[in-house]
Design a protein that fits this description.
It comes from Microbacterium gallinarum. The chain is mainly alpha-helical. It is built from one helix and no strands.
Length: about 60
């Protein structure tokens, strides 16, 4: 095994580790953004329901 082959193997391993971390961070960020969107939609629905309920009593 010569020097360039060893560096190639280390480069491939480093690329896989970096890609794994980046994909993990990306999916975590997308999941967080998705949860925020769902929470915003549910909060808007609840807000309009509560506003409708309290405006009928006046």
């Amino acid at each position: 095994m010569n020097k360039s082959t060893a560096w190639t193997v280390l480069g491939v391993i480093a690329a896989i580790v970096i890609a794994w971390v980046l994909v993990d961070v990306l999916f975590s960020l997308l999941w967080f953004i998705g949860k925020l969107v769902i929470v915003a939609i549910v909060a808007a629905i609840v807000f309009f329901i509560l506003r409708g309920l309290f405006s009928r009593r006046d």
